[in-house]
Every structure is written in C-alpha cells, then in structure tokens.
Amino acid sequence: MIKDVYACNADTCPIANDAPFRRARKTGEIGGPGGGCRSAELANSSLASREQAISGWIEPPHVNLPGRALPIDRGPVHRVTMALLSDSLFNPTEEHQMLRQMVADFAVREVDPQAAEHDEKGVLNVELFRRVGELGLLGITIPEEHGGAGMDALAAVIVHHELSKYDPGFCLAYLAHSMLFVNNFYHCANEDQRGRYLPKVLSGEWVAGMGMTEPGAGTDVLGMTTTAVRNGDHYVLNGTKTYITNGCEGFCFLVYAKVEGQVTAFIVDRECPGFSTSNHIDKLGMRGSTMSELIFEDCKVPVANLLGAEGSGVTHMMRNLEIERLTLAAMSVGIAERCVEIMVRYGQDRKAFRTPINRFGQIQRYIGEGYAQTQAAKCLVYNVARDIGPNIRNRVGSDAAKLFAAPVGKQVADYAMQVMGGAGYCREFPVERLWRDAKLLEIGGGTIEAHQKNLTKDLTRALGQSAS
Ligand SMILES: Cc1cc2nc3c(=O)[nH]c(=O)nc-3n(C[C@H](O)[C@H](O)[C@H](O)COP(=O)(O)OP(=O)(O)OC[C@H]3O[C@@H](n4cnc5c(N)ncnc54)[C@H](O)[C@@H]3O)c2cc1C
Q1: pTM of the model
Q2: Structural domains in the chain plus CATH codes
Q3: 445 lines ligand 1 (CB under 6 A)
C-alpha cells in the first residue's frame, strides 16, 4: 500500500523530528501552524495531486510530480509504479521527499514573488537569504552536531533544483554561500575555526563566498598570482580575485593564495586590515545575486585563519569543485523544468489561426524535445548525486553532469521563448529572465570547454591504451 510507504506518525517519525524539519515545523513551514508531522498528509496530497495532474494537466502549485507528464494514462497501478520508480532516483528517502516539498513550498511562496524585482535591481535579497538560514538550508551538507541539516549531495541537488525553478539568481547566491564557502570550509577547518564562523554563516547573519578566479587566471586556476607570506602570527596577502559571487554583501570568504608557490586556503573576513571589495560588477543574468572583486593590499590574515596546511589548497579546491559543479547542473535542471511547464501551459492556452498552438507540429517539437532533454539531464544529475560526497571523488560524474545539463537549461529556455513568441521576450513573463540566467551555467564553476578537457583527461587515464 502506497499510503503505508509514506505514512508516519508525528511523534515517532525520525524524519519529522530531524533538526531542519524541527526548525521548519516551529516556524510553520511544514506541518501547518500546529507544527504536526506532514508525511502522511504529504503522501496523500502527492498521490491525489498526481491523479489530478495526469487527468487534467492541472499543476498543483507546490508539488513536484515525477511522472506527471505521462501522455498516456495506463491506469492507477502503472502510475503508482512509475511514481515509485522515479521517486527512488529523485527522492530516494522520505527525508528527501519532505525536503523537496518544503523547499518547493518556500520557493513558490517566498522566492518567486521577489524574483523579478531583484533581477531588475541587480541586488541580493538578504532578508530572504536569512529566511533560508531559518529553514536550516544554509548548512544542508553539514553534520547536525555542527548545526547543519546533516544531509547528502542529493539533498543539496534538490534544494538547488527547486529554488532555481523560480529564481536562479537567488539560488546562485545560496550556492556560493552553502557550497562554495560552507561545505568547503567545513571539510578543511579545525574546531576553533568552525566555532568562530559556522554559527553565523549557518544562520545567514554572515553572507559568505569563495575567491578562486583572478583577472589573469580563470580556467587556468593554478596560474593564480595572489600571494600569502607568513609574517609572525599572520600572513600578508596581495592580489585580486574577480567575479566573486556575494562579494558585495559577504562578510567572510574562503580565499586561495600561493604560499611559496603552493596553493593554500585561508578565511578572510571584513575585519582583516587591507581587505576590500570593488563595486558590484553588473551582469546579464543571475541578477538576484551580486559579484565583485576581492582586493588584498598587504592584507593581514591571522595564522589562525589558515585552512588545513600550507600547500593543501588544491586538494580542498578539487574536492569541493565536484559538489559545486553538480549543484550548478541541478540549477540548470530547475530552469529547464520550469520552462517546460511554462511552454506546455502557454501552448495549450494560446491560439493562432483559431487553433491552440500546441496542435502545430513545430510547437510540439519544442515541447517534446524540451521535456525529453530535461528528463535526461535530471536523471544524469540525480544519478551522479548518489556518488558524490566528502570521501567520494567523482570528477568524471560531476563534469559530465554539468557538461550535459548546462546547455539543456539554455536550450529549453530558448524553446520556451520560441513557443511564447513576443510574450517570451518580454519582462512581464519569467522566461526571458530564465533564458538570461541559464547561460551562466556554461561558464561559472568551469566552462563547457574545461569539462570537456577534464573528461578527456580522466577517461583517457582510466580507459586509454596505457591503462590496464
Ligand atoms: C556570474 C559569475 C559568478 C562567478 N562566481 C565566482 C565565484 O563565486 N568565485 C570564483 O572564484 N569565480 C567565480 N566566477 C568565475 C568563473 O568560475 C570563471 O569565469 C570561469 O571559471 C571561467 O574563467 P574565465 O572567465 O577567466 O575564462 P577564461 O579561463 O579566460 O576562458 C575564456 C575562454 O577560453 C576557454 N579556454 C580556457 N582554457 C582553455 C583550454 N585549455 N582549452 C580550451 N578552451 C579553453 C574557456 O573555456 C573560455 O571559453 C564567476 C563567474 C561568473 C560569470
């Protein structure tokens, strides 16, 4: 019985009593104002909504429905089987399912309404960012004993996927904070450093980011020229980082600099003398987040802010790049999925030549191919997410996921714009914003060409003629 698979009791459900959900229940984010467990309610509403959605193409606003868009309804048993099969990939546990529901609810209610305004202004909604902290999502991959949600890479994918359906720009700020800073910092920090920084970055009181790229070194990251020289109880940093997400609002940054030619990681915060940031660097898309330069002019960083050992920066960087790329790929899936939903509805409602445009074969091609590409990217991203973790190296998987998913987001946004004609090009609809946002995913966190290069190198090492 499906209901039994999902149903649980508020007092005994281990998921509903986990830290992030406890926090969310207190604030009424899940379980309603009374704060009760919602697993059973969720299961019932999901199934009911699936029935409704399949029969009438009505999308319940807060429910993600794998299998929803099946064009042929083969009856309840088939539908339930399909739902369970896709749930095992996209929501492998009840905890993942509840997380998705919570983030999807939050995205519809609080992220979507502010997206266009912050895109227009080109600013981060810091207040909303702190709400994400209240929900326990800023430390999604951090163990509970250190104040995080204690979840895995697949959970991080769920959050990025759901937020990006409504505001990829805001989601990029979330990614820079929770993946580029928090996740990386946690794995290379000592207990003193965790104690000093984690509480405030997990609550969102301090916004954070990561500085790797320089004006003269992007893809060629090891060509960075920022230096750090030890001088008694501090290091002196000189150099500039550029295109740093959250640079304008950020209080602390994980920064890479070379100590005697060896890449080394530091925490630099606004209280370090000689540290400043440039003005906001304006950009095409992802405008719900900001970026700036980080400038180090004889910047004094306490030795206590050295992360790991001198020269261990490349290890930290490479390990973290995998989850960074995976979550960027998940953002593309979110963009593509929303664009499919929008073009399906528009294709049904809009008439030309007194005919709904979804009756035209050329429009059907955009919808059909857009859906198929989105599903392919989604399956790849979630499959790779099962094999990424702090102790699991999977550069091939994360590069492949981003290489494949990034162009899909851009392509499907383009299809949606084409289906909508002039309306798709106008600011009153979200597609033009998603279209602008999608392009970044082919550049940030590694360009398409960098992924091709890495994959060829890694696959040749594993499968080439000298490998045996
Ligand atoms: C919105 C935004 C947010 C960002 N946020 C951050 C952040 O928070 N922190 C951070 O550190 N960085 C950030 N970046 C920087 C981003 O990671 C870099 O832009 C990216 O890695 C590419 O580097 P680059 O811009 O210097 O391009 P370049 O490395 O100069 O590349 C230019 C072109 O040459 C190609 N190319 C380079 N080398 C090769 C090669 N060997 N073979 C084939 N082609 C090659 C590239 O693929 C690209 O097409 C951000 C960038 C943007 C746009």
Answers
A1: 0.85
A2: 209-313 (2.40.110.10), 317-463 (1.20.140.10)
A3: yes
